[in-house]
Amino acid sequence: MKVLSKKLQKGFTLIELLVVIGILAVLLSIVLVAINPARQFAQANNTQRRSDVGATLNGIYQYAADNKGVLPAGIPAQGASAAISTAGTGTAFCNALVPTYIAALPRDPSTGTYTDCTNYSTAYQINVSTASAGNTPRLTVSAPGAELGVVISVTR
User: What DSSP line would sit under 5-72, residue for residue?
Assistant: First the structure.
């Protein structure tokens, strides 16, 4: 008598493979939505901008503290604002701060440029408020290129 034997099948069926691939695709899309890399990069850039405007303002006030309250040349007049760049605040501003008070002028991570004090555009703004009688004006350094609708500025 002949014994009929079934051939053992090894592997997965096409349906099983498609179901697993579908489940993996759904999980991957959920993870990508949760992580959102573009938002993470924008938040990292904004954090860098916050640090930069604070460092710039600290450098300006350290200079003023060492020079009997006199602000660096190139700071705009009261009630005015200017770009922190060669065209805005000028090379005198940069030369007054770099390298004594700040190693190099911070620049916007997306659009700023800095090679040296003769060619830079930090993409940040400086504004000098109008002082009321007897008060000294306040300086504001801001980052107009902030992402995600965030306003980044530091006033002292």
Answer: -PPPP-S--HHHHHHHHHHHHHHHHHHHHHH-HHHHHHHHHHHHHHHHHHHHHHHHHHHHHHTTTPPP
Spatial distance between the Cα atoms of 106 and 37, rounded to a whole number of angstroms = 24
Where do the domains of the chain lie?
A: 36-155
At 35-70, the pLDDT tens digits run 888 899 999 999 999 999 999 999 999 999 999 988
- What pTM did the predictor assign? 0.78
Tell me: pLDDT of 7 over 70.
no
**What is the C-alpha separation between 112 and 121, in angstroms, rounded?**
6
Contact (Cβ atoms closer than 8 angstroms) between residue 125 and residue 142: yes
